[in-house]
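Q: what sequence does this backbone want?
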């Protein structure tokens, strides 16, 4: 096994710093807060921490709008704190990967200030500036250079009076898109990345990195289902020069370095065929990608139109990714992150079977072939939050959508609130629940977003002391990956593709076989995989105290092994 492939047996833990742990009582999580939890992470057993952005930012999108890539925002601490975090992780044998957000900057980044200053600014071409649509009066609605909508509602273009032109922003109007066609932009990004790696950082999670290459003609996109705007995706998802850019980045930043680094590209809309190219080691682009198919199955196009997940769809999707990256490339595995709802509420049962179903979901995910990612609090079985009103929300995506739906489209507020409840991003952004006490021990001040009132029942302190807790189940899963080559390396075969209730697959490695079963329902399931001999195999992990052969109790998970 190539040394490059150390990450096959690694588990990554995502810290969303704003909601992790607050050290100074201002209600916002910070780097000293993370440092205070390093022993917790070590006990859990994770190998790598992915830290969501802590750079200087106006926080229009909670740090995904960066105004200085080479400094820490004072709300999170200082560069000295970050050094201490890196040292603390390295001392404990863990790595740190930083978030790399270079599809866009903040509009308060000096690069953008310079770019916007005049049409002949040397940095004008660093962003996407375009005049109004021909024949239209600049600045009036409908005069935008094309019909694209932004991911955060409204048009993807903002008019700038100073020069009478528009700039492109796929996300908020405070997140102007960088123009990667410009070689100076690319050089500036690579130099910043090298600066971080030289400081001891072990790699990057690359935000919407498959959006950086755009078709420079920026054509109108299709308007679907009575929508207000066109969809520009075809012009920027895995655009014309994306492989060239990622290979160039690899050459300029990673190729000359030894040491076990990690790169993971966040790639909404990426296909499995493209992912095989992005993650083929021979092509030298990235180690793995985050794909989005499996988190798109429980809504119709828009996340604000939720629908029930069909288990057969989930298996078909994840199974195709397992097959598609079996020979070349590598999968990342995740149920959640700071943009997704809590998985136990989404695909499990966050009521009576919360603990059982949280463990089942964890077991199923972690025993796939790929590198698993744990989003903070997932290891506790944290749940979605029941926000009582729009005033309790903080996320720009859901706030902008609510305003557009109620004001522009005249939808009833109660209807909109109900529609946003299952999948909005604030579900995952309530603070980590450390203890049963006030605000879950997250802060001594007023938390920036409410702590889930279920902190009294769901918290790390209590679970650390209970052998059968969700937390301890995650520890066992991580230990299995570390200890068993079949988990890290084994081949994957999906079973029972047509079963709406049971998730089943095998892993095989050098004459050993692992059978993994998960019941996605509260009803008992009889499992027939056409091989009765499995019934007597040894159980290596389960979410019920006793083994029970192949038949599954409510939300049961079982992993059996034989040679
Ligand atoms: O939720 C989405 C759109 O409805 C996703 O497409 C999401 O915006 C996408 O996954 C990109 O996410 C990343 O970039 C965004 C940032 O807001 C997210 O937090 C980040 O993970 C812009 O930087
Ligand atoms: Ca703080």
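A:
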């Amino acid at each position: 096994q190539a040394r490059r492939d150390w990450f096959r047996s690694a588990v990554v833990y995502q810290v969303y710093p704003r909601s992790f742990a607050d050290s100074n009582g201002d209600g916002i999580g910070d780097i000293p807060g993370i440092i205070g939890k390093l022993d917790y992470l070590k006990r859990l057993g994770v190998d790598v921490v992915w830290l969501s952005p802590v750079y200087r930012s106006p926080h229009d999108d909670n740090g995904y709008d960066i105004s200085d890539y080479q400094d820490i925002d004072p709300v999170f601490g200082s560069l000295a704190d970050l050094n201490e975090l890196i040292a603390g992780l390295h001392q404990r044998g863990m790595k740190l990967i930083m978030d790399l957000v270079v599809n866009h900057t903040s509009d308060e980044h000096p690069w953008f200030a310079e770019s916007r200053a005049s049409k002949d600014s040397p940095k004008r071409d660093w962003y996407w500036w375009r005049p109004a649509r021909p024949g239209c009066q600049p600045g009036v609605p409908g005069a935008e250079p094309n019909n694209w909508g932004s991911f955060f509602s409204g048009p993807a273009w903002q008019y700038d009076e100073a020069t009478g032109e528009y700039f492109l922003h796929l996300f908020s109007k405070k997140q102007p898109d960088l123009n990667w066609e410009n070689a100076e932009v690319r050089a500036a990004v690579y130099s910043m990345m090298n600066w971080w790696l030289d400081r001891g950082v072990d790699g990057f999670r690359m935000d919407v990195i498959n959006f950086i290459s755009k078709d420079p003609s920026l054509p109108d996109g299709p308007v679907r289902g009575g929508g207000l705007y066109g969809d520009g995706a075809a012009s920027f998802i895995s655009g014309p020069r994306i492989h060239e850019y990622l290979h160039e980045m690899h050459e300029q930043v990673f190729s000359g370095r030894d040491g076990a680094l990690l790169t993971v590209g966040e790639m909404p809309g990426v296909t499995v065929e493209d992912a095989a190219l992005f993650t083929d080691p021979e092509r030298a682009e990235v180690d793995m990608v985050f794909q989005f198919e499996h988190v798109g199955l429980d809504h119709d196009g828009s996340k604000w139109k939720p629908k029930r997940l069909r288990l057969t769809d989930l298996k078909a999707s994840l199974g195709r990714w397992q097959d598609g990256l079996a020979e070349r490339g590598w999968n990342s595995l995740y149920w959640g992150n700071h943009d997704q709802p809590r998985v136990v509420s989404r695909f499990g049962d966050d009521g009576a079977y919360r603990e059982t179903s949280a463990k089942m979901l964890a077991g199923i995910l972690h025993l796939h072939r790929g590198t698993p990612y744990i989003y903070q609090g997932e290891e506790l079985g944290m749940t979605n939050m029941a926000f009582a009103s729009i005033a309790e929300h903080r996320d720009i995506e859901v706030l902008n959508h609510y305003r557009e739906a109620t004001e522009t489209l005249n939808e009833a507020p109660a209807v909109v609130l109900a529609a946003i409840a299952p999948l909005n991003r604030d579900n995952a952004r309530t603070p980590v629940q450390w203890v049963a006490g006030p605000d879950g021990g997250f802060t001594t001040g007023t938390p920036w977003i409410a702590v889930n009132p279920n902190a009294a029942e769901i918290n790390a302190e209590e679970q650390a002391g209970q052998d059968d807790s969700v937390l301890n189940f995650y520890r066992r899963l991580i230990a299995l990956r570390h200890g068993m080559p079949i988990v890290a390396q084994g081949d994957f075969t999906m079973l029972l593709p047509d079963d709406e209730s049971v998730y089943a697959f095998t892993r095989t490695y050098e004459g050993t076989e692992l059978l993994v079963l998960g019941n996605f329902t509260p009803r008992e399931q009889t499992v027939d995989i056409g091989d009765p001999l499995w019934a007597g195999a040894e159980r290596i992990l389960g979410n019920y105290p006793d083994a029970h052969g192949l038949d599954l109790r409510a939300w049961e998970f079982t992993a059996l092994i034989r040679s």
